Model the fold of this input.
Amino acid sequence: MKLIIIDYGAGNIKSIQFAFKRLGVDAVLSNNIDEIKTADKVIFPGVGEASSAMKMLQESELDELIPQLKQPVLGICLGMQLMCNSSEEGNTKGLGIFNVDVKKFSKAVKVPQIGWNVIYDLKSDLFTGIKEKEFMYLVHSFYAENCEEAIAVIDYEIEYASALQKDNFYGVQFHPEKSGIEGSKILQNFLNL
Done:
């Protein structure tokens, strides 16, 4: 299996690579458009700030490539947020794959949300073998609103989308690569899609 992690300068890529290595798959880092197009599966990671990450995607023309990909694509954390219509972070226009906007948490809760929280209302093969209210690890200050494309939700002040799916595109707000055995199962489920 050819698994590509999109390398555009805004990813916590090493921990994702190690997580797949534990599953017996060598994930290749690449920003080469032709190589990404021929991958069996694609991971779109992201750590950092939305507007600067989007600028890096635009500079390498990956912003045009990603929405056209036909194989399963998994956005993680900021990667998922960039797949949405827009983000309040840096007033950023997203890739428009998921028809939802990304908002900032209010000052009523501790921001960023760091640590473990439960996901529920699971609705996808991505969650095969995962129980309702399983704990996942999160680090973020912005969230995708709950919407029709939500395949899992989390409650943190409000109920928001912790995972999204549309066609071959998947996104998770949490970090499966840092979420222990259950997170590994989600990554394995993605490989099995």
Observations:
- The chain has a mean pLDDT of 96.
- The CA atoms of residues 136 and 180 lie 8 Å apart.
